[in-house]
Amino acid sequence: MMESGKDNGTKLTGQRRVGLLYDERMCKHENLHDGYHPETPNRIRSIWNKLQSTGITQRCVILDAKEAEDKHILSVHSKKHVNFIKKISSESDSRRLKTASKFDSIYFNEGSSEAAYLAAGSAIEVVERVASREFNSAFAIVRPPGHHAERDEPMGFCLFNNVAIAATYLLEERPELGIKKILIVDWDIHHGNGTQKMFWNDSRVLFFSVHRHEFGSFYPASDDGFYTMVGEGAGAGYNINVPWENGRCGDADYFAVWDHILLPVAKEFNPDMIIVSAGFDAAIGDPLGGCRVSPFGYSVLLKKLMNFAEGRIALILEGGYNLDSIAKSTHACVEVLLEDEPIVGSSEAYPFESTWRVIQAVRQELSCFWPTLANELPQKLISQIAPPPHTLISSSDSETEDDKGRQNSDLAELLQDVIKPLSELKVDAVAMATGNAKMARLMAHFFPSEDSDDDTTATPSVEPMPDAVGEGIRQVIDEGDEQPQPSAEALLQNLAVDEAGQGQGVGFEDDPELTIVTNPKKRKTTPGSSKTLTVMEKNFDAGYFIDSQLLLGTEEFFREEDLAAQVRWTYRSLLRAAAIVRKMELVLAQSQLAEGKLRASQKDISKLKAQEELLKARLAEEEKKAEESATKINYLVDRDLSLSSQLNSAQGRATVAEAKVKELEEKLAEVTKSAEAAKQEALALKKKNKEIVRDARGVVKATEERIKAQVFLLAPDLDTSMIGAFKMIQDGKIVDILRQ
């Protein structure tokens, strides 16, 4: 087990603090059915062995690998995909094999699930350590790679998209770390289609990919990697593709892209952190990439990136299939991470013309999003170009001056290979080998040595004659090859293919003696009577297989008077053979291009079929929803009718109630009127009652006065009873009695 967070006994003062993550468990993912599969466990083993052998691991902090949690993987992948990868290793081998065949460039075994979870978790681990400033930078040496994996599908050796999972983790799960903008640089030779799609609408992530594209014919063989794919919505302008038109791109091409596209945009974007999808299949010698980036080149590319985000960079391994190249390139990058010093070295090469063309197209496409790209590049700069990349398969049969120059250069090299062994022959050795004394005399006569005299019958010299032979052949070629050579098209038009298999040939107009036949075993010419270039027709990748033998005559071929013609014919034959081979290469290239387009078309058809099935499913779902809606509408209509009926009934009852209310109001008015009359009558009675009371009081008072008067008059004669009555009168009680 690795010692997480420990310095392995080495002090890290005076240099940047760098984390390294490697775990042997990721080697359990292996193709057991193809021992030569390029995505092999030895990829990361070779890297680790290189770092250990140079002692660089002692200068870093070695981190433990951790398996990713499902919730973090689900931030970019569907639940169906996560469950599929989790369970695939528990399936039987035959079932895994059958399942893998349904995907594009994928294999599974018992260790695939664990390795995929470790790779994703390790990516999270290193970016989190760097984002938290625990480390200045880090490198995760992981597999399987991830940048091709899409939301619902593994592809291109990739199971989970490690970089996308790690970037999303920082943005969504760890906002307290302050990482709000991330630059993802994908320098793998293949386009990072999966990563692109996962951040297609996201302005928080600037995704940059430089890759071989070749107009959609290079893996993953789609238009997704073209420079017009710039993102949508909020992410418009935050997706940058630099698609190479050809292979063999090297340091100078990548430096130009960095200086004139990536670095200006990165400065304007100002990322908080950089994550590199570090695929090394653009390295020299990679069997899949076909490019020429050196370890020095990778170190320069990384060093340029360290000027941003305070040097907070995490590299996560992607592709790279040459074990020596991937180990050296990784080592060069880790050295850059450790030493904050200028890189020693230089590159005197220039980019290809196609590189400048792509750079200009990308700048123009993105200039509306990034004003720093709006200015045109100086003509003096873009005129500094390297010769076109040389490939065995030509993409054109154009006969321009450049093509002729390259063809003549190749033929010159070929002729040197022919001349050199001839020039080193001894004349007597030639005679001994052929048993032909006349031939030796002819050679000595035509290519005299410094020791020989003008007598052609003298004994041939046994010393080598390189200068004489070489100059003699060149002189013959120069003197006898003044007429223009036929083009590849003309040569093929003159090539007769005898479908009946009779071996009849057709000559060339400029050399009637040259016969090309399709069946050398049935040729009508005898070995010594004429010169025959045999072409064996075979079905091989839509082209032809050229038999390299030039069937020449023996003694008659070297007749003294025809020797110069024979040399000229040999040279022209080489030209014709080269033209035919070139045409065959063209046919093969066109076939491969057609095959690539066919594969792309088949993939598009598959996608269209999948989309058709999806649309059918959606249509069925919409029809079901429509049916449910119709049912709801019918229910609502019935309910509306019922409510209308109830409303009408309620309106009828309301009318009746209104009539009753009116009737009651009328009765209430009558009652109110009667009550008012009764009130008036009561008031009248009350008034009358008051008058009666007043009159009674008057009578009582008058009576009281009379009684008082009489009492005073009769006072002397009153007895006790009368005195009591008098007191009653005095007390007013009599009044109360009278009132009653």
What does this structure look like?
Helices cover 50% and strands 8% of the residues. By secondary structure, it is α/β, with parallel strands linked by helices. 31% of the residues are buried. The chain has helices at 42-53, 70-73, 79-88, 93-100, 112-131, 162-173, 193-198, 251-269, 295-305, 323-338, 353-366, 379-382, 401-423, 427-434, 437-446, 466-480, 488-494, 563-714, 720-731, 733-739, and strands at 18-21, 61-63, 137-140, 182-186, 205-212, 239-244, 273-278, 313-317, 506-508, 511-517, 532-534, 550-551. The chain has a domain at 18-382: 3-Layer(aba) Sandwich (Arginase, Chain A). The N and C termini lie far apart (125 Å). It has 20 helices and 12 strands.
Q: Report the mean per-residue pLDDT as an integer.
A: 77
Count of DSSP helices? 20
Determine the structural class based on helices, strands and strand pairing.
Answer: alpha/beta
Strand residues, percent? 5-15%
Shape: elongated
Distance between the termini: 125 Å
Estimated radius of gyration: 53 Å
Query: Major sheet, described briefly?
Result: 8 strands, parallel
Oligomer kind: single chain
In terms of per-residue confidence, which ranges show pLDDT below 50 for 5 or more consecutive residues?
1-13, 391-561
Give me the CATH fold name of the domain at 18-382: Arginase, Chain A
Main CATH class of the domain at 18-382: Alpha Beta
Strand runs, count: 12
